[in-house]
Amino acid sequence: MPVLTRDEAQTRAQLIDVHRYTVELDLTRAADPACETFASHTAIRFSARADGATFVELKPATLRSATLDGQPLDTTALDGNRLTLDGLTPGEHELRVDATMRYSHTGEGMHRFTDPSDGETYLYTQLFMEDVQRVFAAFDQPDLKAVFEVTVTAPESWTVLANGVTEHLGGGKWRAAPTPRVSTYLVAVAAGPWHSVRTEHRGLPFGLHCRRSLAPFLEADADELLDITRACFDRFHDTFDEPYPFDSYDQAFVPEFNAGAMENPGLVTFRDEYVFRSAVTDTERRSRAVTIAHEMAHMWFGDLVTLRWWDDIWLNESFAEYMGYQITAEATLPRALNSVRAGDTPSTDPWTDFAIARKAWGYDADQRPSTHPVAPDPDAVPDTASALLNFDGISYAKGASALRQLVTWLGEKDFLAGINTHFARHKFSNATLADFIDSLAHATDRDVHSWAAAWLRTTGVDTLTSKVNHAGRQWTLDIDRDGGRTDGRPHRVTVGVYDRDLAGGPALVLRERFETDVPATTTVERDGGCPALVVPNDQDVTYAKIRLDAASQETALASLSRVPDPLTRAVLWNSLRDMVRDGELAPARYLKAAQTHLPEESDLAVVQGVLTFATTTVERDGGCPALVVPNDQDVTYAKIRLDAASQETALASLSRVPDPLTRAVLWNSLRDMVRDGELAPARYLKAAQTHLPEESDLAVVQGVLTFATTHIADRYTGPDERPAALATLGELCRDLIRRTEDGSHPGLRLTAVRGAIDVATQPAPLEAWLTEGTVPGGPELDPELRWHILARLVVLDATDEAAITAELARDPSATGQEGAARCRAALPDAAAKQAAWEAMFATDDLSNYLLKATAQGFWQPEQADFVREYVPRYYEDAVAVAARRGPAIAAVIGGFAFPAPLVDTETLRLGERCLRDTDPTPALRRRLTDQLDDLARALRVREGDGTV
Fold it and tell me: What is the architecture, at CATH level 2, of domain 196-297?
């Protein structure tokens, strides 16, 4: 079927205005699995400005009839998804379409799910990017906004939710209040026997909704969820001049949802994994809170003011990403986030979570061949297929980082003034990058047009490298951006300066923080003795790699978990990461740092950020610091490289840095160094082993452990070295478990238990936990942990199909079905592998979630030789299934089903041949391009000489 082009959308928008949709959906037979379709009746009132012709989009099972101004249209003229409307004249028109549409099990259009726990059926819509055409006829482009009146007929016992307040008319019929003017992709319906928790706030109805089988778990978390929702809602009202623009606020937790959530106005849909049925960490709860705030931000950024064309998707996602973290930091209640687990350490700044769990997503995407500007040139997004590719770490994490830097550079007062001007000018309408920049320019005298050109229209990650020189009572800091280039992005960074504890202890003490601009060259002199650790971009307020000075680098590697600020620790981890990636630090040193410091990390969200470009020389009076950290507070977007002394300080003393955000910055620096081939993976592991036992921030622990396991052990370490890496990580996790025996930190203990399962090489301890139903000293094994252990035992060839069947009988829920699919695909048995392969590629029977679970189980590092024969088949079959099942399934096939554990030149060669000689769909091509780039990077890291 043809996709909509930008030129076609512009032509149609010049010809017509759309006023109102009246949509009637008949879902009465939805619970019957033999019924594959539903009835859809649509009336569209629109006007034409001139004589002409256009088309309406729909993807029906059957087009029964269509009339334009009462005159029948030829239904056989439907061309793919387009029905031509000829003979339009200036003035008002009415189009009526009667069709049957198909239910989906891919998470697109009208998704249907039957709960295996109780047999109940649920429906919800996901209408983003051309999928409205699967539910009703529409002029499907974001700048043809209209009022929507939706009526749904469903089984009498069901509840129907929609964008507006719904009224039950009897006989299974529900009518939703008309919406304000919104885009077609934002229309939403959810129908089923929902369990609901309802309240009011500021005179508006609020609701939480989930499947009945999840009701006890929603009830357990309802107070927390509503507290967060109310607090964020109030904070948005304090921040924005425009009030919330819709008549209600429902949040529906729906099954088999492809994304994290969707910002449908008045009816936000979330993946129902956010209704926790097993134990979770405080970080996971905070991540849920950020998602709630992110989607609420969309009510203004995206719903009230909507992009005109998909090249400006960043106007939706970058802003929601930034505001989600910022509003969560400002507004969430201590009761909601700090006291959810008795005895857990206090919840930390969400920006530390961003640094360690989110920012690296942007850095990694920005260093692949598929990189693109935050705001790409409109010509680079010629159609909807190309637009769909840009929902990635650049549009989200890099865009949010750029906005955080903009706030630092511009000032929050002027930034918010510009935002409120933007809303006032464009509410219930559409806007572009140029419109947004003009609104900012109205609020400030600074040259925001040049800033936007440098930050939003360019690609790549800047690297900030610091050098520290000391003479007498004065020391000098040079921050060099990418070899001293003076063009490109301006940065304003926070520099953190750290000394050894004068009492002779291992801790690092913050001497000072100061801000400096990094456009070209600046000189600043500092007093005092030489610090033990200097962290550029200490608070991570810019976007660039950092390089520590040599002494600071060693301090970080040795004492990373002692850095007091979790955000600073995240910056340090990012610096080490960059050095490994760039060949400046041996990966082994990064691994060692992780093994050393993660057991002591207290902050869950260590920055993976990297720092800014330009050359800055800063001279300071006083002795030479032990550690200088550029981007210390992580307010820019760049890799950082410490000076040599700071690098050594970081490796040796990272856990002694007082600020968790600074520690996150430092860990991110180490991570980047590993990825860039500048730090041996073994050094990262050594740093983790040294500092994690002392790390107080859980986000840092989770971030470092995840990178050390999924990247260093599974991809960057060769088969001969992998057992030693797993042993190091296993001992590290056991250290963390021993550290938490007193119950002082249940979130850290749960993280350590999960990590110990992932890296286990012997089945006996896991078998004992499974038999006893608990880890000695806790936690008790909930369904999530039981499936986690069973999956690892399958990989270790220590269990069989009978055990999987028994566990599924114990947990027959949807999550249990996924766990069983994952375990069966992981069985080291030829028949099991063939069955899993056929389920993924030979039929279309698997839902999006069961396909993902099967793909997650299939490829295992321990089974590389056993499954190698499937690699050539993968590339052939992936192309076919992506073409057959569409972009949502292509994302699963190109992501989770890719043979990532097979890090060898043959997998790379076959993939490159696939891209060269076949024609994958755009969604699959983007995924494969990124996967192959990551594979090539892993090969380069493995081939490094390990001397750094």
Answer: Orthogonal Bundle (1.10)
